[in-house]
Amino acid sequence: MGTAYVTAMWPIGRPPHWVGRTQELAILRAAADALGRGEGAAVWVEGEPGIGKSSLVAEALAAARDPGWEIEWGMADQLTKRLPLGVMLDCLQVRAGSPDPRRARAADLVRSRRPGLFAGGDASVTGVEVLVTLVDELCAAAPTVIVVDDLQWADEASLVVWHQLAASIGQSRLLLIGTCRPTPRRQDVQQLRAAVVRRGGQLVTLGPLPETDVTALVTAIVGAPPGDALRRLTAQAAGNPLYVRELMDALVRERAVQIRPTAELSLTGEQLPGSLAAALTDRLSSVPAETAQMLRTAALLGGRFAVTDLAVVLRRPVSDLVAGLQEAAAAGILAGSGAELVFRHPLIRQALYESMPMAVRMALHAEAAQELAAAGADSLSVAQQLSAARRPGGGWARAWLINAAPTLDTRAPQLAAELLRQELQETPVGDEAWDALVVGLVRALFAVGAYSEAVSRASRALTVMTDPARRGETSWMLAYAQWSAGSNNDAIGVIRQALAAAGLPRVWQARLLALLAQVERQTTGFDAAESISRRALTAAEEVRDPFATVEALHDLWLTHSGKRDHAAALDCIDQALNALGDDPGYADLRSIALDCRTFTLQNLDEWPQAELALRQAREFAQRTGRTDRATWVTAAVLRYWLGQWDDALAELGSDASDALGPVYSFLRERWSALLMHGVTALIAGRREQRTIASRHLREGMALPIENLADRENQDFLVAAHALSLEQSGKIRPAMLRLAEIVPRRDGEMTLTHQWLPDLVRLALAVGDRQAARDAAQACRDEAAAETRPARAAAASLRCYGMLESDPDRLTEAVTHYRTVGPPVELPAALEDLAAVLAGHGHEEDARALLNEAVALYEDMQARWDIRRAEGRLRPYGIRRGVRGRRGPRAASGWEALTPTEIKIAALVARGDSTSDIAKGMFLSRRTVQTYISRILTKLGAKGRVEIVREALRHGVSP
Q1: Are 439 and 473 in contact (CB under 8 A)?
Q2: Are the CB atoms for 141 and 173 separated by under 8 Å?
Q3: Environment class of 667 (CB within 10 Å of its CB; exposed 0-12, middle 13-18, buried 19+)
Q4: Backbone torsion region of residue 627, taken as left when φ is above 0, otherwise alpha when ψ lies between -120 and 50, otherwise beta
Q5: Rounded to whole angstroms, how far apart are CA atoms 217 and 30?
Q6: For 239-259, how does the pLDDT look when each residue is reduced to its tens digit (9 = 90+)?
């Protein structure tokens, strides 16, 4: 809904609710003025029902809007709150048949998820990304206003979209407005409100109108100031402008007001509405009974409804409804344009809805669901009505739900779980529908991460379920849920029991074997996992099941990576990608595979190819409209080793809490949080940003280490903690802390060689040569395991070069890092070599190496590393040359921008949207947002317009 909706709801010339609200109106107009200057703004308007929130917003927009603005207006209500993204999809008019290709494509991307557990789970994860990208495109094309009424009823996914838009409000030509009632008090809504205020958004709180403003409103409506009797009557409204308006409209309809010259009453108190509800009911009595009944049916469909849906439910052609709908619009009950209509105020719809006894409402919802289902309506519309009926729908509903469950499990898993629970309560065990219903329920529970209930339901189902295929699927879900909860032995037991059952379909044998390999790796090690993985791959290829094939190849990738046969690991992941092709139904699996490929190429020391693999992962995400969260941590780790620390931090974003959600739809794990906090803390520590490092260490170390995946991804955090101890002068505790990463357990992936040179250095610093020998031997073992010498081999050269004070080995390590990489290791190896040469009396060579190392550390702003390197050489009387010293980088202004930030500023100046920049630079959209936020801060700018001005002033172009 856009400008036409605003005009229909609040026609020009109609006396407003906002009389007297000059200060509040000024805030909204100032936000609209900011949009006119190309700046973004967020406003949160709160107040009781009928207090005038929406009309105040409409008046501000009517006074300030430009004809070229894009206005999108949505409304949440109690019926839509269970539909993921329902509010924002309606607000942004995202429909499959939209004439706007941007909206039509967004609708296709949101709905393109293949139904079923293995296709990627809750579609709202992708939908959030799709809608945020759509808004970015709208804002790039024209200044955009997005208003969402009654956020207290919005679904969680829509709140996430609203939050992400608010978080980057300064970067877009976007005016974001939300209205909200004080009750019900939902925690997520309160968090959203707090985030808006924290980020500089405006909070507008509307209270009751004072008596003088009520008098002004009455005067505007009737054309004369109220007399004493009328003033006493309107005082009953307690300053609620909707109540005042409805009361006055009722008086005018009954010709109960006389002008003499003040406005006086001509009716007795008994003839007047005594409450807002009564006033609203009086308005409804102004239309014929047939129209009122039609409106009650419309109220079942929500605050906004399609005329075609109303016709289906009433079993009448649309042409029969036209006269009644026009009467309702003339009476001020309905408004809108096109194929959809809206109740002029939620309280009007509520009065209609609650005028029907609850039993009648529930029965009518059930009938509406059946009629919509018979007409082939969207499954979410039918499910919404079934949910409102609050009771099983009978035989037709059971059959419909079984067919619709795969789609609902993907698009609205919480709603699916509610309906499936409801039907199961009325379906006896042994009924032919029972198996299908329970499988659908477990699948829905799995999608929302309700593993405990999923385990309980699946365990009970397996005791009575007889169909082999459904037993196989249920066993897979049960075992996966148990494994996710850390109950590995239980999962293994369930899988082995399922594999031993007669009649198990080959496809489920393959999938269960692939899952078993993953669990066995964590329980018994790589050898057992490899054997099972090969059996799974054989079975999967026989039945040509892409999911099982890729899972088995992924298992083999894990085994080869753990055994340090990285070339074989790369071959497995390339086979997996070939098996998947471009099938969007397996987008999650492809994202995981591309992530694995980037990791393996790093292990092979093929750094340019690793960067290319990251680009391919992002191109795939952008092309398919997928969330790009899967690449944030992978990219940050890659940028860390490449020495691109500003870029690594930009990948992680300025607010890590934004990234701690699901990375892949079904993989809600701690690994991403451990790595994010660890990488950020390590960079901050090496830059001597102690406050930032301490905060991320504290938050990261508060996360429990409960399984092998946690241990494998805590290494950056351990290194950062050891660094913090070293900086505090606690060298031995630092050594002991870093030593916790060895020995590597059977089945564990951790790349321990990354940290072992530092462990050798710390051990030698405290005179513990045995600990140094142990660390060097552990690194040699890692290098020996590499079937193709790469990173571990180079790290081993450093370890033994320090341990044995051997400059030849260290020189070989330096040569490797110069020619192959990774860049972040080169200055450390130079520092090690300088220290050894200084000990051998080669002072000039040591000084030259120190100067080179410090220059590279300065490029990364690694201030602690510089101090440490100087400290290691100081006992030999070696100091770096004065000419090599650089001043600190500027903290503000154009000179403070990094090369990447300058490039992005140039693209902003060219008019590229955030999404365009992300696509062109193969970055995530969120990473680009972080860069733009930093540019704004460094330039002291308020919006993109000022970035454009600065870029042009400095003669910068893309």
Answers
A1: yes
A2: no
A3: middle
A4: beta
A5: 24
A6: 888 888 888 888 888 788 888
Is pLDDT above 80 for 886? Answer: no
Phi and psi of 264, rounded to 5°? -120, 155
Q: Are 645 and 683 in contact (CB under 8 A)?
A: yes
Q: Which residues have CB under 8 Å from 90's CB, separation 6+?
A: 1, 74, 75, 80, 304
Question: For 52, phi and psi rounded to 5 degrees?
Answer: 105, 25
Whether residue 278 has pLDDT greater than 80: no
Per-residue 3-state assignment (H helix, E strand, C coil) for 545-579: CHHHHHHHHHHHHHHHHHCCCHHHHHHHHHHHHHH
What CA–CA distance (Å, rounded) separates 395 from 90? Answer: 31
Q: Which of 756, 708, 710, 759 is nearest to 733 (CA)?
A: 759
What is the residue-wise DSSP string for 165-234? HHHTGGGSSEEEEEEE-S-S--HHHHHHHHHHHHTT-EEEE--PPPHHHHHHHHHHHHSS-B-HHHHHHH
**Locate tokens 């879900």: which residue?**
477
- Residues 163 and 231: their CA atoms lie apart, in Å, by 43
Is the previous residue joined to 662 through a cis bond, with omega within 30 degrees of 0? no
pLDDT of residue 6: 52
Q: Is residue 32 within 8 Å of 65, Cβ to Cβ?
A: yes
Across 204-213, 847-856, 921-930, the highest mean pLDDT is recorded for 847-856
The number of helices, as runs of H, and strands, as runs of E, in the chain is: 48, 10
CB of 528 closer than 8 Å to CB of 493: no
Instruction: State how far the alpha carbon of 654 is from the alpha carbons of 545, 657, 769, 934, 941, in Å.
Output: 41, 9, 41, 9, 18
Which of 468, 421, 398, 440 has the alpha carbon at shortest distance from 115? 440
Give the CA diameter of the chain: 111
Its pTM stands at 0.81
Q: Is the pLDDT of residue 884 over 60?
A: no
- What is the Cα–Cα distance from 374 to 381, expressed in whole angstroms? 12
Give the sign of the dihedral formed by CA 547, CA 553, CA 555, CA 557. negative
Sort 261 into a burial class: Cβ within 10 Å, 0-12 / 13-18 / 19+. exposed
Cβ neighbours around 430 below 10 Å, total: 9
Q: Is the pLDDT of residue 751 over 90?
A: yes
User: Do 674 and 714 form a contact (C-beta atoms < 8 A)?
Assistant: yes
Contact 400, 368 (CB under 8 A): no
Task: Specify the length of the chain in residues.
Answer: 958
What's the number of CA atoms in the CB half-sphere (13 Å) around residue 603? 30
**What does the alpha-carbon distance between residue 632 and residue 705 come to, in Å, rounded to a whole number?**
22
C-alpha closest to that of 385 among 305, 443, 447? 305
Q: Which amino acid is at 12?
A: I
The span from the CA of 178 to the CA of 262, in Å, is 39
Instruction: Read off the amino acid at residue 832.
Output: D
d(CA 782, CA 723): 23
Query: How many other CB atoms are found less than 10 A from the CB of residue 135?
Result: 26
What tens digit of pLDDT does each residue of 430-480 get? Answer: 888 899 999 999 999 988 878 899 999 999 999 999 899 999 999 999 999
Q: How far apart are CA 486 and CA 452, in angstroms?
A: 12
